[in-house]
Amino acid sequence: MSKQGGGALARKFWEKADYSKLAAKEMYDRQHVVLRQHVLPCLKPQGFLLDIGCSDGEFTEVLGRDCKEGVGLDLSAPLIAKAQARRISHSHLRFQVGDAVHLELEPIYDTVSIMGMLTYLVDDGEFAQALDAATGALKPGGYLVLKDSVRLDGRGHRYHNDGAYEALYRDEEAYLVAFAQRGMQLVRRIPIVISQEQDQASVVYLMRKPEYDALPERRAATRLAIFLQAPEAWANVRTIWQAALADGNAEVLVVLMPFFHDSYEWRRSAVEQYLHDEGVPFIAWDRLNLAQAQIDAVIYTSPYDDTRPAEYRFEAVRPLVRSISYVPYGIEIGGGNFDLALQYGQPVAKASDVVFARSQRLKDMYLRHCPTGDRHVVVSGYPRFDELANLAAFEIDPHLLTQVGNRIPVLWNTHFSFDQEQWSTFDILGSDIIAMFANHPRLALLFRPHPLLWMRMKSLLGFSDADIQALKAELRGLGIIVDERADHRHVFACSHALISDIGSFLMDYLLTGKPVLYLNNPNGMGLNEEGEDLASLFPKAESMEAVKQFIEALERGEDPGRERRLTAIPRFAEQQDGHVGARIYEHIKSTLAAAR
Length: 596
Known about the structure:
The protein is of the alpha/beta class.
């Protein structure tokens, strides 16, 4: 490998640069998504950010969204001048000319980022100096965010010099070793662009300087951990947690971790606040040394390994605990081979010691569609339904009751997949449903979309955060109630009926005994065999005429399908006596005891 420029050519190029976007626009667009959805969830709110090689500050602004103070450094005075203009709307950010190779920094930063700059440090000594400065500037427990072009599969470094500038594309393995030697732990690796030859890629890396909280000395016979990624999933395990708390010979840890997804906006502060409000003690994933935590059993609430930090994926956790259980996060009724693979082919679904199923019918679905069959599936009932056992006694948020007033409340739940012809009818019926309920004197629409809908509108339709807030305000101005509570029981208890796309609510709401209208996308992927049976209990709408007929019957107080629905409940949800969570906990506990 020849490095004839020795770094001088690259330095000369970047000192004078007034523009830094040398790759295709699509790469930078993707970089925005990756930073927002896969990096920001991990970063400390109200922390301190240092962006080395900040260019015009575009990505400093992204990474600094929730920070208390951010500093951007760059070799180029023209680029820093452009970055300074961002301070008009982001006064917590400041920018200055600085050289990554000659920084002397104290460990005061919660986040340090280097976005694409290390490629241009072709001299190994300068590369090492920059790494020392960046990792040394991090507080223990802090995060390092990197974006670089690297060589794949052990192909070695590649030096580029076209006479105008130079770059060194380092072998990825050697690149990562250099950070590991400085005490950094790899948390996420997200390729943005892979070359046509498959030998080089632009990759975003998220690394951490580990620091862990000390757990109290273990005093109980059993230590159970619940892995929680989203507040919406807490209803699935709340009664298991309560049963473990009631057992004087057990400890239960709720481990909070991100849900990484391009269309889900996970905010650490919001989820932490939710758990605080619920009175649930928790430990964050990045403060727990899982290998030393002496956990006996783990409960997963989501099957999707790629949405979790690497150290909490199934294969990483398996050697560290004696038992792994999975409580399904939703109702598996979607059709198509794609959805069957998602629901039954994930490591958590096929290799957990126990999957707790709501019914024999679901166990049979595992027999037909899970690669490992159904021997690990136990019919327990669904703990999420424990909280629906006495819904009439649930205390509804008084503000919601005030919003509804004397109107008949109808719950509307729409799927997010309006762009893929999967299950959503949002793009087919949404505008007409909104118009039908807008400022209606007798009807109140409780709009509770799938959590991914808003982000799908951002990524596909170009909506900004401000656009989404404006849309919600417009809906409220029309008398439509936008429900964003983590606890769905408020709208379940308040509403008189449900109109819904495919989703968990179709089965959840069945247990209320109230009327349901199934909104079907005729061009979508349909339902699996159990889903078809469930949908047959409800009238189906593919047009507004069917929606209007359902609402008119509701206004008249007519519900001809009620008895048929109530009779069918045991087929879909067995043992729903309000004690499913307790039975699941006892099963885990007894299994551990038998294995001792």
